[in-house]
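Appendix B, example 12.
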Amino acid sequence: MPGRVLSVASECVPLVKTGGLADVAGALPGALRGHGWDMRTLLPAYPDLIDKAKASAEIWSDPDLFGGPARVLMGQVGDAAILLLDAPHLYDRKGGPYGNPTDFPDNPQRFAALSWVAARIAVQGGSDGWVPDILHGHDWQAGFAPAYLRFTGQSRVKSVMTIHNIAFKGGASAAMLGELRLPYEAFNTDTLEFWGHLSSLKAGLATADAITTVSPTYAAELMRADFGMGLEGLIAHRAGDLHGILNGIDDAVWNPRTDPEVKPYSKANLAKKKPNRDALLAEFGLADVTGPLAIVVSRLTDQKGIDLIAATAAGFVADGGGLAILGAGEAHLEEALMDLVKAHPGKIGLRIGYDEALAHRMFAGGDAVLVPSRFEPCGLTQLYGLRYGCVPVVALTGGLADTVIDANPMAMQAGVATGLQFHPVDALALSQALRWLIDLHADAKGWTAMQKRGMSQALGWDTSAATYAELYESLTA
């Protein structure tokens, strides 16, 4: 029977976002409501969030939460109930959620506090009497929440831990056990210990009743050393409790027919996409792009395969392609892309930073979106591409493998292809995919058909929400 869920996350749209975790945390409450589940989302009260969420009702307090007073205020964003952990000594500071510009040195305490409060509310409820049946933690920032819950010894509230990206494990010194209110006897290889240190992500994976990750293929990959990053043994041990549930997107926000940032179009009138392409070429200072205009909207990191784009861009533009890039990240990759712009003026454009409105215009104006990630738990970029008729070119890994149907000969013959996949994830394979992209784009009729197939895919949260609801019900049965 449906019940109540306390979702614990470090970010959530539309309040705060650095990556896909925020999109998932923001989408789940509304998606699950249709299945009868009442979800509240607990977040740190970063600067301005209390005003944004109009949070005023105090439902929990503690005079000393890891070094200072704290309270939980309840607010509302749209139809979603938001709980904000107001602890100024931990969260009232300039910069992003995790640092300014490098990680805050007290991040272990900051997010252990978030997890501690989540477990307290799960066990005791708030002053308004709302008590959850499920505690759902997201990534390392909420990893200690299932552990604190387990250490209380109660078994009524069940816990779920979702891995959005296993590369970030929430490391901390073992000397912090007492400070983080963790039992010394739990510092062992089965629970808290990771190569002599603490890992909040491992704690969550070891103690949660169920584990989910954001695509079926990524779930399988995590049991291998190439992807598990030291936790593959634990995940393989818990394979029976592991569920790969594919992410969705907010298909109301990402809709080319109603998107306020673009000139509207749909799969029924795809020719109206062209004014967006023309506008994007002008915005990035590009000209004489006779082949496909490819876009990149990404963190500029090696994990995202940006070095592969730098290595293959010259050949792509020589064949008639154009490239528009939006992102920020590692300095050496930013410099490599700047050098490409200088070497290919009018063919490659670059914006350093992140601009949500520009991202929408890029998907509307681009012919293809490049996602050459070395690993990708789910990826939302390729889903936005499908939604906007911006054909994805993706590495064969994780959620990219689960969401894009490769334009191989049989898929083309059957009329089901929605994009291009390449493997192995190296510059040679990407360059071959880009040549195939050039050829496919030259066939106007076939290209339009592939765009329309992508735009016809069901990309929202309906199926995923139903799967989460089934998991919750199985845990509380």
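The chain has 19 helices and 18 strands. Residues 95 and 101 are 7 Å apart (CA to CA).
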